[in-house]
Amino acid sequence: MHLAYPAVLSALLFCTGLYGVLARRNAILVLMSVELMLNAVNLNLVAFDVWLSRTAAETLHSGQALTLFTIAIAAAEIGIGLAIVLAVHRNRGTADIDRLRDAAESPDDSDDGPDSDAAGARAAEKAEVTA
Amino acid sequence: MTTTTLAVLVPLLPFLGAVAGLLLGRTAPGYVRPVAVLPTLTSLVLSVLVAADQGGGRAVDAATELTPTGSVPVELALHIDGFAALVAVLVAVVAGCVQIYSTGYLRDDPRYPSYAALVSLFTAAMLLVVYSGDLIVLLVGWEVMGICSYFLVGHYWETPEARAASLKAFLVTKLGDVPFLIGLFALGTAAGSFRITEILATVASGALPHPTVTALLLLAGVAGKSAQFPLHTWLPDAMAGPTPVSALIHAATMVAAGVYVVARLLPVFQASTAAMTVLAVMAAVTMAGAALAALAQDDIKRVLAYSTISQLGYMTGALAVADRGAAVFHLLSHGAFKALLFLAAGVVIHASGTNSLAAMSRMSHLRDRVPDAYWTMTVALLALAAIPPFSGFFSKESVLGAAEHVASGHTGHAPGAAGWTVLVAGLVTALLTGAYAMRLWLRAFHGQGAEAPDHGRQPLVMNAVLWVLAVPSLALGGFAFRHLPAWFDGRDLAPTLTTSVLGTGLALAGGVITYGAWRHTAARAARTPLGAVAAHPQADAGLVEAEAVAGHTPAYGSISFAPDPADPGRLLLGPLHRHAAAGFHLDAVYAALFVRPIRGGASLVRFLDREVVETYVRGAGAAPRLLGAAVRRAQTGNVQTYVSALLAGTVVLAVAAVLRATGA
Amino acid sequence: MSIAAAGPGFLSPTGVEIAFLLVGLVTFGAALVTVTTRQLVHAALWLVVALGGLAVEYLLLTAEFIAWVQVLIYIGSVVVLILFGLMLTKAPIGRSPDADSGNRGVALAVAVAAAVALVWVVVDAFRTTWIDLDGTVAGSTKVTGESLFRNWVLPFEALSVLLLAALVGAIVLSRRAKADTAARTPQAQGDRSTGRSTDRSAKDAKDTKEGSR
């Protein structure tokens, strides 16, 4: 079998997963897309392992071993990832990636004035909320 | 101790006193008064000893070169002849009197320590000018006096008048000092030395390249320092300073320095007929104009200030007719009686709570409150008006005599036109002097109306100083005119009959006319109520004076002028009164000539700075700000956007790497 | 082209190749549906199809053990976990109009560019490479087990520790969230039912954080 077949399929799956990671809004869908990308890599690893184990006399089957490891790590990743998504969902009431924007300045900071006013306003708001 | 050592100590002691006063002022306030008074009195004693040692004989010359200073050497040199010895004694006497007087006058002033230290420094600088035999060393003292006068005139810096006056004094004298410095350099390069003796030798050998230009340059500095027309305008305004400072500046030190320097360098001026003529015209304009202005002033100290300018005009007039003996003689006697006048005026201002003659003329019995000031001031005013046998008579007659001598054809050392100018102006001024002295005396001490407030006796030190100074005002001239020629150039200083009769007659005529006018106008005083006194008449004399100066403009509408129909000067001067009161609008001329163009330039620069330069600065700030805003827009906080950008970059880099690897 | 001539050409595919291609198409299509469908649960189910297709591909590549592991772990546990996650986050059943974010255009551009670049490079590099699938099976359970426990024992054990750590981590995260939720449940319920704005939710979140400190 041509190596190009699994390799191209792997590339296409990877890019599909890539699109999902970038385009999906729900965090769980993003995790699913990540799984797709991981599987694409796995396919690559298996295909190259099969090819190399035929050509080389002695082989460690490192591709298949790594695939197993990847699957295990993916399982761990999905567990942790889901736990995080659940925690976020409980705290924020949403699991939408594009609404989790705490890394950006809040809208009242975006005017051109000095930061102190906005910071003060935020501090006041925070105090009010805490109370 | 040798004469040289004594002479070095004379300026050094007040200087050390000033340093000690500045250092001790805060830590040991108890020592401030002795530290201020004792060095000055010691240097008075030493200067008397120096004068006795010198004795009018050969000049004492000593010099030491501290370090090589390039092409023209600068030496620490002493040159003590009869002029220097006697002027130093005068300076020390007046400075000592002022220091003693200040202990009473500024008794409660919180800034007394720095004040006393500056007065000491001022004295040291003047003594340095007097004794110095090297022009650069002389210039050091000259400039130190300038800065000290700035600080002392601005002693009451809380009042806007004092701030403006100190700045004006500083700037106007500096305006003269720049040409003066250039003139000194011209002399130094011509002679190859800054030593006065060598420069005079060069002048005598006729080796001075441009005598007229050099003399005129020096004259500018002298006019600034000695308050001669047209640079005299700072002196009346400097009355915003404390009275003892006025006495010190006007009687003995700063204004005398200019006359003294011309006396020292008189051969340089004599080398140029044009310079002598300019000097004579300057003297004539100054003495007559200032006397007219003095007749119109309302502030008692401004009257005295203008009279100082006028008397300085006599001294420069004497120099213009090349008789420096007469000039320094008048300097000495004027120093004594003008110091007395100022110090007595300080007492009067303290007692009456005002500096306005209009207000004083509405107080009766002021003379009973301050009998010491009344009597000593009478003596000093008689001396000022040159009534025999007071000292002013002899010194002024020596000036007029010298002018008459030149005018009558003895033009060997001065142009005849200068003689005539000085003589005529001097006689006119004698008339005016009698008039304004009489006006001051009548309006200050012979007022009618409410009784003057009684604040108790004046401090003893202040009254004692007045009597000490009354002695030379009374008798110096009569005793000295026979002996002084031996100290000076040997020229006869005795009064001649013609000028004596003319001068005294004119002065008496002025006094009598003023008395008549006063009799005519004094009745109006009761009908026009006027007058305002200081807010705290019971307070320390310095504070009363500061308040009086600050209150003059709000109360009377002008710093120099009061709308008083009872003023005899108003009757005498007629329509001229308004202009004379404003100092013949010279300040307005200066404002139009210098202040407004400079202000215009400044506002132009301000416009350029604010609107043009700052636009670039703002642009330099705004561009990164806009860029930052644009970049900030990209920071949405959406992780997917970031990852998209990251991966897009990765793809681009990967493609680029592959293309590079395959050589495409 | 001389090298290409050495191996079998693309125009005469073998049976394995045809099977691989067909299953690959199904897998790729299922993956595309997974990332584009608007129904979240359907996405998870289509993911099952894609992962199952991959398992078949492993079989075709003679990697039996991996294929069964794929079925067991991915289809058996991961997808189940994902479905649980969807349920727990109250994912809407049926079409949700906002399954894709506004980043879609950029994502498409980046993905297509990456796909073009990768496919181009891979095809360019491996168009002549031939895998000989005949002979001994490369990925039988025996072979894989020998390799794993002969050569990869230490990483294997380290991986087990990693899994344990992940397990503990997931439990800790869930427990902590549960404690917070207990305190906040009424408010959170109210939020969700009234569909309040994101800002308000964010503020609530801040508030929760403040409270937890």
Automatic annotation (TrEMBL), chain A:
Q: Where is the composition biased (Acidic residues)?
A: 105-115
Q: Which InterPro entries match?
A: NADH_UbQ_OxRdtase_chain4L/K (IPR001133), NUOK/Mnh_C1-like (IPR039428)
Chief location: membrane
Quaternary state and interactors:
NDH-1 is composed of 14 different subunits. Subunits NuoA, H, J, K, L, M, N constitute the membrane sector of the complex.
- What keywords would UniProt list here? Cell membrane, Membrane, NAD, Quinone, Translocase, Transmembrane, Transmembrane helix, Transport
* Reactions the enzyme catalyzes: a quinone + NADH + 5 H(+)(in) = a quinol + NAD(+) + 4 H(+)(out)
Described purpose of this protein according to its UniProt entry? NDH-1 shuttles electrons from NADH, via FMN and iron-sulfur (Fe-S) centers, to quinones in the respiratory chain. The immediate electron acceptor for the enzyme in this species is believed to be a menaquinone. Couples the redox reaction to proton translocation (for every two electrons transferred, four hydrogen ions are translocated across the cytoplasmic membrane), and thus conserves the redox energy in a proton gradient.
Location of region: Disordered:
99-131
Q: Which organism is it from?
A: Streptomyces thermogriseus
Q: Establish whether keyword NAD is in the entry.
A: yes
Name the protein family.
Belongs to the complex I subunit 4L family.
In Swiss-Prot or TrEMBL terms, this protein is called NADH-quinone oxidoreductase subunit K
Transmembrane stretches, start-end: 65-88
EC number(s) from the headed UniProt entry: 7.1.1.-
Extract the NCBIfam families matched here: PRK05715.1-2
Compartmental location: Cell membrane; Membrane
Write down the top EC class of this protein.
translocase
- One Pfam family this sequence matches: Oxidored_q2
Membrane topology note: Multi-pass membrane protein
Automatic annotation (TrEMBL), chain C:
The family annotation for this protein states: Belongs to the complex I subunit 6 family.
Native source species: Streptomyces thermogriseus
This protein's source sits in the domain of life called Bacteria
Q: What does this protein do?
A: NDH-1 shuttles electrons from NADH, via FMN and iron-sulfur (Fe-S) centers, to quinones in the respiratory chain. Couples the redox reaction to proton translocation (for every two electrons transferred, four hydrogen ions are translocated across the cytoplasmic membrane), and thus conserves the redox energy in a proton gradient.
The answer, when asked if Nucleotidyltransferase is one of the entry's keywords, is: no
Name of the featured protein: NADH-quinone oxidoreductase subunit J
Q: Which reaction does it catalyse?
A: a quinone + NADH + 5 H(+)(in) = a quinol + NAD(+) + 4 H(+)(out)
One Pfam family assigned to this protein is Oxidored_q3
Give the enzyme class: translocase
The biased composition feature labelled Basic and acidic residues covers 193-213
**Keyword entries, A-Z:** Cell membrane, Membrane, NAD, Quinone, Transmembrane, Transmembrane helix
* Subcellular location, principal: membrane
Q: What is its EC number?
A: 7.1.1.-
Q: Which residues span the membrane?
A: 18-36, 43-61, 67-86, 106-123, 152-174
UniProt xrefs under InterPro entries: NADH_UbQ/plastoQ_OxRdtase_su6, Nuo/plastoQ_OxRdtase_6_NuoJ
Please give the residue ranges the record annotates as the region Disordered.
180-213
Q: Cellular location of this protein?
A: Cell membrane
As for membrane topology, the entry says: Multi-pass membrane protein
